[in-house]
Amino acid sequence: MSDGLRVLVVDDDEAVLSVATEFLERRGVDVVSVSRAVDALERLDEGFSCVVSDYEMPEMDGLELLERVRAARPELPFVLLTGAGSEDVASDAISLGATEYVQKRPGRGRFDILANTVVNAAEAYETERELAASRAFVEDALEAVQDVFFVADRAGTVTHWNSRLEDVLGCVEPGERDPDEFVAPDDRPAAAEAFEAAIEDGSARVDATVRTETGDVPYEFTFSRITDDDGRVTHVAGVGRDVSERVARERAVATLHETTRALVGAETPSDVFEHAVAAADGLLGLSRTAFYRWDADERALVAAAARGASTDKLPVLGDGSPEWAAFVAEETRTVNASDAFEGATALVVAVGSHGVLVAGAESDGFDDVDVSVVEVLAANTAAALDRHDREAALREQERELAAKTERLEEVNRTNTLVRRTQAGLLGASTREEVERSVCESLAADDEYVFAWTGAVDDGEVSPRAWAGAGESILDALAVEDATASPAWRAAEHAEPVVVSDLVAAAGGGWRRRALAAGAGSAAAFPLSFDGGSYGVLAVYGRRTDQFGPEERDILSELAATVASAVNAVERKEALVTGGGVEVAFRVPDATGPVSAMARRTNATFELEEVVSKEDGSWLVYVAVADVDPDAVAAAADALVSVTSADVFDSDRERTLVGLVVSEFPAVDVLAAHGASVQSLTATPQEVEVSVTVPRTRSVRELVAACEERLPGIELVRRSQPASQPAVLVEGLTEKQRTALRTAYEHGFFSWPREHTGEEVADAMGVSAPTFHQHLRKALGAVFAEAFGDQSDLND
What is the DSSP secondary structure assignment for residue 724, as one 8-state letter? Predict the structure, then answer.
């Protein structure tokens, strides 16, 4: 055990010094020997475990050296060597603090005694020093710990403690006071139970509130028993840790959980704002908190909920404010001069794209726990608001989908109605049938109460056809000012007119009669086609807002279809039967194929027959006199608008030409407005055409349309036509009559036959079987008329 010991030996006798050194080194001691006391003092700080010194030395004796050593190193062992009979010196040495003395006697035995004495003293010194260092380390370690540490006996009396306990309790001698004084009354039983559990089981833990000078503080105590060498419990060591932050975090977590549940259950964004502010107030214990939401209309942050202030009194935060900067950057910032709280320090936490949470700081400001807790709150709030946005978007999508589904059903219903109505129009051969068919089809739909068509002229509405339970509406139009009705306005302005709510609308008797019939809304559509007006279509719906955009568009298309159908039947009627008023026009420098041929041949052409073909082209028969037929054919072939040209009958006085032309401007414009061409003469300078206009059409509108489409046209005369010649066969259809006339003009009935049936069919633009079918039925009708057979041969 003497290994590691270092001893300083001082003696002016070299022999003694040598022998003493030898004996000590045998014991494993590291020996430093000097012959002078002064030298020993100079080397005293070299870490010796003991000093051995002779008493009688020159310059400084052993007692003086002892005094100097005790002044520098009071704890260092010192062994004094004295001569025989020097008991007084030995006594003085002990009184001065010498550890031991050894007398110099003859023989080697005295050096054994010296070695034993020195080793024992040095080992005792080193052991004590190690124990002292260990105790100091433990004490330093306990003092370095911020936790409270104490040791109590089994009775609970505190015997040892660190300074942290004194600081917490505010007393210098905690052991002199009853431990119960420092624990809150409610926690004393639990603390005593944990203390006894540590004695029995070895350790225990308990949470207890400690009463400190600054107030009650939550602590966590851990008790561990201390035993002696025989295993008996003598004391209990306790460690107390301030768990204020942990308790605060646990409370914050609990509050966050409660807030999260509240946020999830919040029905509106306003409820979310209120829950967030309340939670921030509870988490931080601050008197001023506010939620600022992003207002897209204001383009700024607007107070939506607050604690400690009214939202009405909080300012709007826009670009340039520190809160705005935190919102834009989506960051958490501590603002030293908050605009929200009159320049106070505030914690600003961005809540996604929804706004910011602003908390006004107290004197201590915000620690990391505060920031973390509020950031978690902000994230939960943002999630709740995101959910509300998604749900709102979903509800909007559902509303839009429901509306679209409703509109689609409405559109499908209306489309079905339109298709049914259009199918009815295909079988109509007169305008009356067309108008009656569309009215009956519309009135048959459960969504419509009444439908009618009428003509509008000079402020008067004249009903023509109607269907449904609403005739009294027409009676009101007959006796009141019709210009207030939707029908008159639609025709006058050539655009649809919709009255979405008849109850709220202004109007006369027509409105009251419509309400009485069960209508909630009304719509009127002009019947217009190719620039011409054919009157108006009025429809009355059962519901308010019946005529939405889609239904309005569909009914507008239906009105256009009706106008087109009326135009078609009137054109057919005009081309077959003529009309009621005869009108003659002159067109200088007219365009069109017949006028072009007249200019190319410097001749006059007379129109013999004109037939409208299904593909939109025209089959035209014209006659010209005193012109070489080859010149006529060449003039026709040179025109792009002439698809084909055939000379059927020619002599020096007269040539008959059949033309298929893609356009015939004069006839096209007139026929489109229901006029029937009676005669047409084309000279190199002008075209003169005479037509008859049906009694159902306005001559004024016809003249206006011709002036717009045929520049320079002049009205020559207007008169009632002479009586029409009798028609050979009244039962012929237009296609049968065209087949019969074309076959005759092409010399199909001549002998020998000038053109085959295939050639005549080609001239008509139909297949040969179709031509023969129409021709046979036409001939059958003619023969039946001639021979008196009244059976129907047209089926």
Answer: P
Answer for the pair 348, 357: CB distance below 8 angstroms, yes or no.
Answer: yes
SS (HEC) of 597-615: HHHHHCCCEEEEEEEECCC
Tokens of 266: 């919040």
Extract the tokens encoding 711: 């520049």
Residue 431 CB partners (closer than 8 Å, separation 6+): 566, 569, 570, 696
Residue 138: strand, helix, or coil: helix
CATH of 248-392, picked from 3.30.450.40, 3.40.605.10, 3.40.140.10, 1.10.3720.10, is 3.30.450.40
6-139 fold: Rossmann fold (3.40.50)
Overall pTM surpassing 0.85 (yes/no) = no
**Is the model's pLDDT at 438 over the cut of 60?**
yes
Residue 430, amino acid:
T
pLDDT higher than 80, residue 338: no
Residue 189 preceded by cis peptide, ω within 30: no
Does the pLDDT at position 125 exceed 50? yes
18: left (phi over 0), alpha (psi -120 to 50) or beta: alpha
In whole angstroms, give the CA distance from residue 333 to residue 322: 9
Q: How many residues does the chain have?
A: 795
358 contacts: CB under 8 Å, gap ≥ 6: 289, 290, 291, 292, 323, 338, 340, 341, 346, 347, 348
- CA-CA distance, 693 to 701, in Å (whole number)? 11
Q: What's the pLDDT score for residue 41? A: 92
Spell out the residues 6+ positions from residue 76 whose beta carbon is closer than 8 angstroms to its own.
44, 48, 50, 51, 69, 125
Per-residue model confidence as pLDDT tens digits over 305-335:
877 667 777 888 888 788 788 888 888 887 7
